[in-house]
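Figure 6 in text form: structure in, sequence out.
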């Protein structure tokens, strides 16, 4: 058994998780078809865990009690090795806690546990953030899985759409230089359907911050599909690399990039969870590979 990765298997799917970043790096359906983006040159990641921020802070700086800390986009969890807590054929748990290195960037005590469990075609992911310190823990967390686009080789990208469980008429948010634009923009979702095309991502991610749905299906009219369900997340990002790349990311978030005009302490930033000492937050999502 490798200490660097762990593979879960069932009759309907297989999933491999890395110790580095607690990152899902492979998801195959019951026919052995790889559905997850394999970290090619267009983007060198698969499905990073975003913590303790989602998106970008202005000037990549976190300000707390008069001090400034360096904090790059999407936080540091994706670049840290997690500790294996549990490793079973159908389940594993990984853990990251604060240490001297994290405190140089994020001056808070925390415990982040990521649990993956596989049953038939369903991969369940649970993110548990605990405040182990003596002050309020301000944090965001998000998932960032990238799926192959197209899922079926040879099928046109434009054959694919996202179909939400509920109509999504609310305006969306877009980014400029990684920060949230001040004004919402009209949504590209028509009823429940967001048609996918490379041009959709000319202005970076589509950010749904008034999300009505709790699930979405990513599919064409034939071939494999992905369904995602989420619980506890308040936003959803949909992203592919501007200019074209063979993947699309479907990202449940609890948090969002800083507004372009935000210039206060980190604890005042919109979209944060504020977790009391001794308390925790649990968020879940499911990927159904069919």
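Output sequence:
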């Amino acid at each position: 058994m490798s200490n660097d990765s762990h593979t879960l298997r069932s009759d309907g799917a297989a999933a491999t998780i890395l110790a580095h970043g607690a990152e899902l790096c492979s998801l195959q359906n019951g026919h052995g078809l790889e559905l997850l983006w394999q970290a090619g040159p267009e983007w060198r990641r698969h499905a990073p865990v975003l913590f303790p921020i989602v998106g970008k802070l202005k000037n990549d700086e976190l300000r707390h009690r008069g001090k400034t800390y360096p904090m790059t986009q999407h936080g540091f969890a994706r670049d840290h090795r997690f500790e294996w807590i549990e490793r079973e054929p159908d389940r594993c748990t990984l853990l990251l806690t604060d240490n001297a290195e994290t405190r140089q960037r994020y001056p808070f005590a925390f415990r982040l546990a990521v649990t993956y469990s596989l049953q038939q075609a369903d991969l369940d992911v649970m993110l548990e953030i605990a405040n182990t310190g003596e002050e309020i823990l301000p944090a965001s967390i998000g998932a960032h899985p990238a799926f192959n686009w197209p899922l079926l080789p040879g099928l046109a990208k434009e054959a694919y759409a996202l179909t939400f469980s509920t109509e999504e008429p609310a305006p969306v948010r877009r980014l400029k230089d990684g920060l949230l634009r001040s004004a919402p923009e009209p949504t590209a979702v028509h009823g429940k359907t967001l048609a996918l095309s490379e041009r959709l991502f000319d202005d970076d991610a589509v950010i749904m911050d008034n999300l009505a749905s709790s699930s979405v299906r990513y599919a064409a009219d034939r071939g494999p599909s992905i369904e995602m369900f989420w619980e506890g997340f308040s936003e959803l990002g949909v992203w592919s690399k501007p200019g074209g790349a063979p993947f699309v990311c479907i990202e449940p978030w609890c948090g969002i990039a800083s507004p372009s005009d935000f210039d206060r302490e980190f604890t005042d930033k919109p979209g944060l969870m504020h977790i009391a000492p001794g308390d925790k937050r649990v968020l879940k999502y499911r990927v159904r590979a069919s």
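Caption detail: Residues 20 and 229 are 25 Å apart (CA to CA).
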